[in-house]
Design a protein that fits this description.
The chain has about 230 residues and is of the alpha/beta class. The chain folds into two domains: about 150 residues, SPOUT methyltransferase, trefoil knot domain (Alpha/beta knot), CATH 3.40.1280.10; about 60 residues, Trp Operon Repressor, Chain A (Orthogonal Bundle). It is about 35% helix and about 20% strand. Helix 8 crosses helix 9. It is elongated. The two termini are about 35 Å apart. The structure holds adenine.
Amino acid sequence: MRIDILTIFPDMFRGPFSESILKRAVEKGLVEICLHDIREFASNKHRRVDDYPFGGGAGMVMMIEPIERCMESLTKERAYDEVVFMTPDGELFDQPMANRLSTFNNLMVLCGHYKGIDQRIRDHLVSMEVSIGNYVLSGGELPAAVMTDAVVRLLPGVLGDETSALSDSFQDGLLSPPVFTRPAEYKGWKVPDVLLSGHDRKISEWRHEQSLERTRRLRPGFLKNSE
Ligand code: ADE
């Protein structure tokens, strides 16, 4: 899979993409993540990418031209499954959306600034608008990094144990059961006996019951949706 990210702050991605699972996925060649600095596509000599809003008002607005030129340089090389714009009024990101995006070959992600992007970009140049939650961040960069992480960890070969993405919380509409490791007792806090019993069927039944109980308590909506 290839993910092209268009941003005016490419350095914001270097941390999240150079550690842990994302770093390994890139090194193994399972995903190619390409950062594009929109500023490099500005035609004016000051490399300006924003301008004053028509009609007046506070704040600057990201201009169409540098974004379109950047997009064009990419779309002439390959076809994109979706061109995603990160925005708090987009469709809410969730596990089913991550699953769908992880099946794509080429994804383009535009990081904008809420209120601060010419509406014609949204109307004509993007195919999908995504929000990571009902709160406003200062730009689309952190949301794009969150979405990229959720998608890349689903790609085949990224997680060591092929089954571990399948047993994630949310993946089967249930939250994960609690997990424990040694010691079996710490300051009087005990690991549930069943996990020490060596009885595989009882252990998986216990885990399933715990999953159901957690889901009922913490995400009752998940169970209602599947009934
Ligand atoms: N940009 C600013 N806030 C955002 C959010 N919650 N989701 C996606 N993009 C954003």
